[in-house]
Amino acid sequence: MSVAVLRLSRHAAALSIASIALFLVMTALEFLYFQRLSGGLASLDMRVAGFTPDEGMAWLTALGRRGGEIIIVWHYLTFDLLFPALLSLTLVSLILAFGRRLSTFRAMPAQLQALFSLVLVLPYAVADYAQNFALARLLSDFQLANPDSLALASSLTVTKFALLAIPVFVIAVFVLAGQRRR
């Protein structure tokens, strides 16, 4: 498995381009279609600081059953089913690619390099999929929407973004450290 993970660094550019393209498609859908369905309200999974139960209910109510079904199909069962995995592969590839430019990282055993990158990225992927599942459940059955389920979805949203910041920060540190060495 570590061999497959280590090979990802060869595809860092292609994975980055694919992630950016998918992100742009999802962002366009959000601003051009989903926010129109919800009367201008931002989707809950885009709210970096989370949301209150009242804000969550306002979004669900504004979408209604039809809007919720559209978002489930065009977001959670398509693009956002792929995006966390693609972004995770991209982050792992970038950690490895930029890490290998540093002598200290390069000196680590290959299995440790792979493990290091996976440990940094997998928590984000798990949190993102958990958050997607929680929001899709709320959209599929409004009866499940109560202050506790909305608070859980909000905390998963905040957790997703916080855990995403960790590998992004490490990549930035690797990039800066690599530039200093030049």
How would you describe what is shown here?
The chain crosses the membrane at residues 12-34, 73-98, 110-130, 150-177. Keywords: Membrane, Transmembrane, Transmembrane helix. Helix content is 81%, strand content 0%. By secondary structure, the protein is an all-alpha fold. The longest helix has 34 residues, at 147-180. The radius of gyration is 18 Å and the shape is elongated. The two termini are 33 Å apart.
Q: Count every helix, treating DSSP H or I runs of 4 or more residues as helices.
A: 7
Distance between the termini: 33 Å
Poorly predicted tracts of residues: none
SSE order, one letter for each helix or strand? HHHHHHH
Structural class: mainly alpha
Question: What's the pLDDT, averaged over the residues?
Answer: 94
Strand content: under 5%
Keywords: Membrane, Transmembrane, Transmembrane helix
Transmembrane segments: 12-34, 73-98, 110-130, 150-177
